[in-house]
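Teaching assistant's notes for section 4

Start the section by putting this record on the projector. Ask students to predict, before seeing the second block, whether Gap junction protein will look compact or extended. Collect guesses on the board.
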Amino acid sequence: MNWGLFEGLLSGVNKYSTAFGRIWLSLVFIFRLLVYVVAAERVWSDDHKDFDCNTRQPGCSNVCYDHFFPVSHIRLWALQLILVTCPSLLVLMHVAYREAKAQRRRANGDDGRRVHLEPGKKRGGLWWTYLLSLVFKAAVDVAFLYIFHRFYRNYALPRVVKCELPPCPNVVDCFISRPTEKNIFTLFMVVTACVCVALSLVEAAYLVGKR
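Reveal the predicted structure now:
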């Protein structure tokens, strides 16, 4: 996946962001996107291959793995990053519409009250679009934090899980690959997501208060 697309997407909306929005942008790039690309993908690359159960019953380890890992951390994390950056695309589309409208006014020789020509200013519909994008970003992060908590209680992976699902012959012990390292990255993901939620809500409150 070309993550450079998201870099260009978010950088384009940077000039319309407040200080809180720029901090959010830095967090997404440095502490979420970069960590995902550089480290997290490698940590979870062997999660299925090295999921070992103390039985040779065919299909047992696959069934147990699917039960304890219904959706991989890394795929959920990727989906979260994609959805949390989508509102920026909506803002960029609104900005493009605004600039095209300004160009048409200049082409028609309208030198009167030229709206939407000041770069970095959020007015009218763009203000609402930006505000809704903040709310949506915060809602996405909260929703995924809840999903992670539902799938993986307390966001933690145990060292050993017990499985008795068919076709396992009895209660078998299954061992997760590198659980400590995965727990550290999961905790890091949760903390950065919480910080991003707080920044989005603070920025939304700032916009409303300033208006």
